Structure formats: structure tokens, C-alpha cells
Amino acid sequence: SLAKPPAVYEIELRERMIRLEEELKNQRELIKQGFDLMEKRFEVVDRRFEAMDKRFEAMDRRFEAMSAENNKRFEAMDRRFEAMSAENNKRFEAMDKRFEAMSVENNKRFEAMDKRFEAMSAENNKHFEAMDRRFEAMSAENNRRFEAMSAENNKRFGAMDKRFEAMSAENNKRFGAMDKRFEAMSAENNKRFGAMDKRFEAMSAESNKRFEAMNAENNRRFEALTKRIDRLMYWSLGITVGTGSLVVAALKVLL
Question: 24 near 32, Cβ under 8 Å?
């Protein structure tokens, strides 16, 4: 600084330079140590990679050996499958021959069965034709019988209709007579009910008069009773007032 003399400033500057050189030396040594450690680590990594390469080579050799072994096994299996395929082909050929022989035999049997079914069908057709003729004859006979029965039933229903008409006329006459009787009875009943209505009206008027008289009598009695109660109240009040006056006078005399 400007306040310090040049000698002091130079000494401080030299000390700083010395400290800086020492610090740089220390940093160089640290950097060298770091590089040495890095080289050692890289060597270790290289050795590890070399070991891994050796392992991969060993694995490759093992896989090659396994592949060769598997190839041998697959070749043996292929030979076995080829032998089995040839054997199966022979068996299938034999089976085809047997099925062809069976098919020929079955065709002959089915042809014989077809002939038998044709013969049976012709026989059945004859039977069914005979049955159809019998059913037609039976149907014609039944139709004739139903026609005769229908004519007989029509005659019977005609006779029944006539009987019902006669019965209906007789019933109409009877119901007409009954209607006349009911009309006469209704007129007689109307007269009786009219007389009864008049009697009830007279009785009602008489009852009304009696109730009115009773009501008037009751009103007179209630008025008399009210007057008597009023008199009793006046008398009770007079007695009470007189008794009170006597008590007051006696108290005045005594006191």
C-alpha cells in the first residue's frame, strides 16, 4: 500500500511469492499423486477387463462345446424322427389299404341295404295305398252316417223349437197376468201408504203441539225457579250483611 515504505512492501511481496511457490509445489505434488492413483486405478480396471475377457473366452468355449453337444443330440433326434416318420408312413399306408378294403366292403353292404330299403319302400307303398282306399271307404260311410244324423237332429231341434215357442207364449200370458196383479197390488199399496202418510202427518202435528205446550210449561217453571233463586240470593246477602253488622257492632262494644 502507499502508507507502507517500499522495503516493507517488498518483503511482504517476497513472502507472498514464497507462499505461492510453496502452494504451487503442494498442488503439483497433489496432482502427481492424483495422476498416480488414476494410473493405478486404470491398471486395476485393465486387469479386471482382462479377467472378464478371459471369463468370456471361457464361456465362449463352454458354449461352443455345449453347441457341439446339442448339435450331436439334435442330429441323433433327427435320425430317430426320420426313422419314426418312415415307420409311421408304412403304418399309415397299411391303414390306408385296410380302410380302402373296408370302404369297398361297406359300399357293397350299403348297396345291398339300399336294395332292401327300396323293396321295403315298394311294399310299404302298396300297404299305404290299400290303407288309403280303406280310409276313403270309411270316410264315405262316416259322411253318410253324419248326414243322416244331421237330418235327424234337425228334425228334433225343429220339434224342440216349436215346444219352446209354445212354452214362451204360455209364459208370456202368465207373466202378463202377474204384471196385472202386481199393478193392482201396487195401486192398493199406494193407497195404503197414502193413508199412512196422512196418519203420520196428523200424529206429527199432535206431537208438535204437545212438545210446544211442554216447552212453554218448562219455560214457566224455569222462570219461577230463577225468581226463587234470585230471592234466595238476596235473602242470603241480607243475612250475611246483617250478621256482619252485628259482629262489627259487638266488636265495637267489646273493644
Answer: no
